[in-house]
Amino acid sequence: MALASDAAIVIDIRAAGRTFFHVALDGTSPSNVQWAERKANTVEHFHRSSYAIGLSLQQANATLADKYALDPAAYASHDGGFPLRIAHGGVIGAVTVSGLAQRDDHQLVGEALCAVLGADFGALSLARS
Is residue 129 part of a domain? Predict the structure, then answer.
């Protein structure tokens, strides 16, 4: 999907402390790699999407640093990180994308996961504001 749309993104898939897939497509920078890692750390810490964590912090008018004492150099609550769950086993890892606008990072991961799982992305897609 990323190649078809010529997206300049980093894609990172990890589980159990190991990286299973990582690619930095043309047009990305080292900061995209760092953002993907920070989002993945957040997902692995909370077992929730980085977007959900960001929304809850926004509603609480808080940051990861002041609410949870997490180093902002290692954690990010921006869109684009999803937990990987297995049935009856919980969260085993994270898939993250970095390089697009936050919301677009999130949409791309959601769309890709729906394609893999055979789910209806239209029913889950974030509404455009």
Answer: no
CATH of the domain at 62: 3.30.450.150
DSSP letters of 66-104? Answer: HHH---TTT----S-EEEEEETTTEEEEEEEEESS-HHH
**pLDDT tens digits in sequence order for the chain, 129 residues long:** 888 888 999 999 999 889 999 999 999 999 999 999 999 999 999 999 999 999 999 999 999 999 999 999 999 999 899 999 988 889 999 999 999 988 888 889 888 988 888 888 776 655 555
Other CB atoms closer than 10 Å to residue 7's CB: what's the count? 19
Total structural domains within the chain: 1
Quick count: other Cβ atoms within 10 Å of Cβ 46? 20
pTM, full prediction: 0.88
Residue 115 domain-assigned (yes or no): yes
d(CA 44, CA 39): 9
State how far the Cα of 35 lies from the Cα of 73, in Å rounded to an integer. Answer: 9
